[in-house]
Amino acid sequence: MLVGDWMSTEVLTLSPKALITSALETMRDEGIRQMPVVESSGLVVGIVTDRDLRDAMPSKFLAGDNAKGDGQGLFDLKIKDIMSHDPLVVTPDTSMEVAAQMLLENKIGGLPVIDDIGLVGIITEVDIFRFLTSATGVDKSGTQFAFVLEDSAIALGDMLNDLWSKGLRIATVFTSYEGVETGRRRVFVWIQRVDDATVISLVNHLKKNYELTYYVHKGETFKDF
Known about the structure:
By secondary structure, the protein is α+β, with helices and mostly antiparallel strands. The protein has helices at residues 3-6, 20-30, 50-55, 79-82, 96-106, 125-136, 153-165, 196-209; strands spanning 34-38, 44-49, 84-85, 110-114, 119-124, 143-150, 170-176, 184-191, 211-217, 220-222. Strand 9 (211-217) and strand 10 (220-222) form a beta hairpin.
């Protein structure tokens, strides 16, 4: 899935020449944690976060802790004085997985989204969470089954065909090689909307035929079955 499908398009921005009080008031009133800084031309030149504002009070840019004075106080600082310059950006065609990796590796909460014209949106960690809950089927009351399988297309295909043959609707399939020996892989399957009786019957079948390590149903994780 692409950033353009999940980004927030109604983006509040700041001018580099705005006072930091603009960011303080807007972030407080709107409950947001970052705002892109945009020139009048539409060029994204920075980003201001709630952390930048916390660092500015008392300001690390001024001597002492003077917040008032003859034009040299904290609240005379402009956005350009505290913003992070040349922020990382993505485009609407960037994959959500790449955006998530950028947020994680750089320990940041949001990325401006730009196209050839300028700023078109912002993708935040909250948008990433929305994407993950949709991709995993959690938002559709799905039940998750976790397996360890042989690392082959045949092993995965046979297990999925087995589930399909039972009339189950598979929402998502993820695989991972973390924590397993070479030649094996973890497989996570989300099934849409199954009742308690069906889950019990399905678990009994799966544990006899596959290495079922756990399952999650109605938000509860079951390992001992």
